[in-house]
Amino acid sequence: MRSLLWLVYEVGLGLALLTAGPFLLARRGRHYLPTLAGRLGGAGSGGELDDGAAAGGLWLHAVSVGEVGVAATLVRALPPELPLLITTVTPTGQALARRAFAGRARVAYLPFDLRPAVARFWRRFTPAALVLVEGDYWPLLLREARRHALPVAVINGRVGDRSFRRMRQVRPLARFLFSGIERFGVQSAEDRGRLQALGVDPARLTVTGNLKFETPEPRANPDLAATLDRLAGSRPVVVAGSTMPGEDEQVLAAFAALGGGRSALLVLAPRHPERWDEVERLLAASGQTVVRRSRLPAPEAGADATGGAADCPPDVLLLDSMGELASLFRQAAAAFIGGTLVGTGGHNPLEAARYGIPIAVGPSMQNFRDMAERFDAAGAWRRVADGADLGRVWGEWLADPTAARAQGERAAALMMENRGALARTLEMLAPILARIAPGSGPDVAAESGGG
Fold this sequence. Notes:
Radius of gyration: 23 Å
Number of domains: 2
Low-confidence stretches: 444-451
Strand order of the largest sheet: 3-2-1-4-5-6-7
Largest sheet: 7 strands, parallel
Number of strands: 14
Number of helices: 19
CATH class of the largest domain: Alpha Beta
CATH architecture of the largest domain: 3-Layer(aba) Sandwich
Mean pLDDT: 89
CATH topology of the largest domain: Rossmann fold
Shape: globular
Strand content: 5-15%
């Protein structure tokens, strides 16, 4: 019976991939086609960074950009001699992982959850333990981990509303899926309660907190920072980060309410690379003058790094690059966190909060429920209903810098108050790390002070 269920699962997933494949290739082929060999368990041209060795070491699976950042926070606290393998699902996550772990780890795509792909992947890598960042549970992969006697742990785990509803409907299957996971470090008591309701033994659950509060300050690009200053001139900078479809129009309406480029420079950063051209067309249709980050010339000695744009400054800088948004919040007078005016669940506000700038978010923050509740309770951001509301809030902050600074300082203070998740996560992982690298575990006591 169990063999039949596995067969049904594999056939169903295979059919789903075959059905969705043409659509994905048509819409995002330039991102996914080069990665196909890696997703089939091989070492394709889009796949792997071979720095470091993974044999006998720790495998960290991080779905996309946010999870890669969490993985990087953990890796900084691990012994430098511990071999590492990092896998991702999305191309943007893969690109960030290659930069973040260059010289430290092997980086590859997670294989499709099909027996040939998983088997091929396992022949290439021989890790001794698996850590899932925030979750992403694939049945065949977890079965193979059990077959190889790999200890499996989850760090920064969370159970979203939609996932919980789905898994509760198939609780026996969820309980089986989680049975091979030795330890869960979760973000909140609510996440712990949901996993218990799905059949996970409470002894395997630890509330460690949210590792995203522990992320270090991002590395700045001094040339880009100087260029942004020149583009802005005497104008304040407002940043709309990680926007999703349906939000860019609302952000532009808010920007127009401020007076557009006469009053501020807007840095607009769409979440997904495939939308960059689309958003540029939207900006052009709105009448805003725009310069793309990718079209700013590389600075040369004695040259104007803005390529003359400072003589006729743009209204909008379209940030069509990866990994640069976080450091640009430092220069913002006000920010908006995307994914919150549409029902996609929100994005991480901490990249902006660390710099003490005032933050506006929409109503959709269910992917960060615990964090959102803390921000709401501390008054550490402003909730807005739509683009018109965002324009009013931005206008208030630009008109009253003292109030804006006080708003931002509450966010920065909240971030500092919630540190400690890294030390608790290391403590939870210590028995597993001791098994795969005896005598080389992290110094939990040393980590506990600074998080």
